[in-house]
Amino acid sequence: MDAALYRIVDEPRPAALSRLAVNPLWPFFACMFAGPWLGWSWFAFNGFAFGDERRWRVLAWAFGGAALTVVVHYLCLRLGVERELSRRTLRYFMLLPVLVRMTMSYVLFVEQQRGFELYRYFGGAVKPGWMVVMAGFWLAPRLVEALPTHSLLTFLSPLFQ
Amino acid sequence: MSLDFENQRLFERIEAQMARGDLKGAVGSLRRLLALDPDSALGHALLSLCLRDLKRLHAAEHEARLALSLEPELPLAHFALAMVCHGQRKSEEALRSLEQALAFEPESVVFLRGKALLQGAAREREAARQTLERALSLNADDPQTLVALGELELERGKLLEAGRYAREALGLAPETAEALVLQGRVLLRQGKVEEAREHALWALRIDATDGRALHFLVEVKARQNWLLGLWWRYASFMSGLGDGRQILVLTLGFGIYRLLLLLAGDFGARDLSQVLQVAWLALAAYSWVGPAIFQRMLAKEMKQVTLSANY
Which residues of chain B are at the A interface, by a Cβ-Cβ cutoff of 8 Å? Predict the structure, then answer.
């Protein structure tokens, strides 16, 4: 971007990390194949990498989304246990936290897409992200297994699904 | 070269770029202009209009409000804010701002066309037609008002009238890309796809950067190829929804998919479950590669455009 030109408020301000910027589609795929732990943190990182005008908003959505997912997951499980729902019914009931996760992923994708298009328009470089998605896909189940049972960390398990 | 002269030259260029729909070019010139004169309310208002058409609504609103803070009595700033609010679906604020712009310049054909646009969006088509008739009575030789009237008739399904307005506009200014696009749209609705394509290419021959002509060419290509047409309709539908509704529709789609998967599992319909999963995967892959294929087809088509000697 030419420094002698007027800067429009929504234009990205590339940082030193801009060489690590990726198309937001990759963090979105990471949400689907590896889970929000990777996808959402990647969205937040990506916003800072390409200097997105909405980077703080994306970060807030990512943190808020993680908290909301954990809370909704916990409440659904607790309600299922209290009401003694059958395993079959519980599976339907647990669709709710899945939908919360997915909604958050769409929100982050839509939030970042426009800024990314502008970044590309100004000739910003982009890295392919498929390797990270593959690595996340391989790592996610192993991380869930590694979470110590009967600890507070188990509450984070919905972020790894 | 004096600053005023440089500004004047830039304004002339911006006007020409905006008139032919070269919005990205106009934004570039406006950024140069505002670097020279950051307090130019007119510059900020014009930038707002360009950004609005480029769907950068947040920045467009910022520029319109900046223009108004610099010069509260600038009619174009009120008009720009009205157009931004229209894009943000804030219809009341849009109408209020437009009325303010019209209070300063009641006989502005551009503002009247803007008012007709708002009325058309509110399904007040008869009121929109009357506003455009008034604009036409103020300037009978304005091809853009004729095109707007034609588009209104096209929306109402009156192809003959729409075609008549397009021809009238072309009679006044034969190299008006909007009129060629309107004529092409009429032909497309009549099922004359090849002739419609010719009109799109003709408009692009006049100006290869005309956004409306490019948009129309894409529409024609979408009609010629059903697979890409599907993507085009999906993309148009989604972008027309706005961010919030778009997220709602996507979540709803995903929810239905997951629910059907569970139901298929519970009723032992393993085949249906597999079909659903393959279909979902295909949809994901298609939404990923669709835009790239579309771009490639468009680039191929653009190679056939022979630019006019005047371009």
Answer: 24, 27-28, 30-35, 38, 47, 51, 55-56, 58-59, 62-63, 243, 246-247, 250-251, 254-255, 258-259, 262, 266, 288
